[in-house]
Amino acid sequence: MYSLRNATKNALRSAIAPSSNGVRAMSSGFWSQVAEAPKDPILGISEAFKADTDPIKMNLGVGAYRDDDGKPVVLDCVRQAEQRIAGNNNMEYLPIGGFPEFCDHSIKLAYGMDAACIKEGRVASVQSLSGTGSCRLMADFMHRFRPEAKIYITKPTWSNHHNIFADAGVQEEIMRYYKPETKGLDFEGLMEDIKTAPKGSFFLLHACAHNPTGVDPNADQWKEISSVMKEKNHFPFFDMAYQGFASGDCVKDAQAISIFLEDGHELGCSQSYAKNMGLYGQRVGCFSLVMNDKNHTSPVNSQMRMIARPMYSNPPLHGALIVSTVLGDPELKSLWYKEVKGMADRIITMRSSLRAELEASGSTLPWQHVTDQIGMFCFSGMTGEMVDRLKDEYHIYMTRNGRISMAGVTSKTVKRLAGAIHDVTK
Question: What integer pLDDT is reported at residue 10 of this predicted model?
């Protein structure tokens, strides 16, 4: 385990390097000392992809669902919800904590319709700006009320996790998670890092469909993780960006949280409706904390709103109305369950197809991990140099850690992708 604190500080220093005499020259402008920021490792791929004029180019970098024709999708349940909403609401500000009905539906989706923590009033929640906003609220909440605490983050993780907690002033530690040799879970290393962390540490866990690896603990492993974390009085914070989108079953995808609740943990959760409801541009999510005493709920909720107020004042209305309409209507909710399962099943099918095509290509490498992993991303095991070759020779774009967005693979492109992967890995 090690800290990224120094690396973050060095990056900030280089971005605001002073002039040689240590004084900003007034004639050169107020912001002349600001250096160009590095490109975002994920969004930068989209920029390069757009600049590529080859008609057979493939973008497998950004985590956004596409249908089998490679087109963006708006779910039928969302369209129907929009029709019901249109012209029936004013455009007034939401409360700082967001649309109350939205928060109620969200925590029931995350913790279960009959969860004791909800029935007993032990959950504080606010509407957030999708999953990124939820994580940032958690980071600022930690910094304000547990300033001495560190956040343990898996290696690897979604790249923006590092930015979110560093910018909030929360010190980060890395815990082992992925084993390159097996392209699977480093369960022994993970458990050792949890056991050796100081008591009362905070852990950022991926509830399902780990990003970028697609490697999740099984139910028995989650139980072991929960047991040790309970013994050490650690605080688990779940980032759940893919509920329903991983297996196609919302209850199954939330099993890790259910296990921790059964063991009596206090915990936090970030929810996003970008992937599972296709509301990428609506930026709608929920941040919640589960307490062990209902008397803590009101103070915690008030402080969550206090943090949100100077950050963005209050969240947007439209996305919250869509989600509330879908989850609050039995017919639309049933349709959503069907559609989110359809998206998950297509990705699972593409995994099977990619593995089959790779094995049929003559590759002697093992590709079982393609189907063992779950969710939007396949952590292929390719090196940065191999990824560069895919881009330069085949016009196939993905992150340099070898992460493939399976949502961008189609039945028409999977064979060409497999052939290109075989060529650069042989």
Answer: 52
pLDDT for position 19: 46
Amino acid code (one letter) for 336: W
Asked whether the beta carbons of 56 and 419 are under 8 A apart, the reply is no
Task: Annotate 189-250 with three-state secondary structure.
Answer: HHHHHHHHCCCCCEEEEECCCCCCCCCCCCHHHHHHHHHHHHHCCCEEEEEECCCCCCCCCH
CB-count burial class (<10 Å; 0-12, 13-18, 19+) for 85: middle
Phi, psi of 179 (to 5 degrees): -110, 105
Read off the DSSP letter of residue 295: G
Measured CA distances, 83 to 78, 79, 80, 211 (Å)? 9, 6, 5, 34
Look at the block and give the residue holding tokens 């490109």.
Answer: 39
> What is the C-alpha to C-alpha distance for residues 393 and 54, in angstroms, rounded to an integer?
11
pLDDT score for 40: 82
Per DSSP, the chain holds a count of helices (H) and strands (E) of 17, 13
Q: What are phi and psi of 362, to 5 degrees?
A: 100, 5
CA–CA gap between residue 307 and residue 422 (Å, rounded): 50
Cis omega (within 30 of 0) for bond into 18: no
Alpha helices, H only, 52-157: 76-85, 100-111, 116-119, 130-145
Instruction: Output the CA angle 168-173-177, nearest 5 degrees.
Output: 120
Q: Which strands make up the sheet holding 285-290, listed edge to edge?
A: 123-128, 285-290, 267-272, 235-240, 202-206, 150-155, 171-176
Q: Which residues are catalytic?
A: 158, 239, 275
pLDDT of residue 44: 83
Give the Cα separation of 412 and 101 in Å (integer).
42
Phi, psi at 236, each rounded to 5°? -90, 130
Three-class HEC string of 357-396: HHHHCCCCCCCHHHHHCCCCEEECCCCHHHHHHHHHHHCE
Residue 129's nearest CA partner among 257, 270, 245, 276 is: 270
Q: Give mean pLDDT in consecutive 10-residue pieces for the chain, a chain of 426 residues.
A: 48 49 61 91 87 96 93 97 93 97 98 98 98 98 97 96 98 97 97 98 98 98 98 98 97 98 98 98 98 98 98 97 98 98 98 98 96 97 97 96 96 98 97
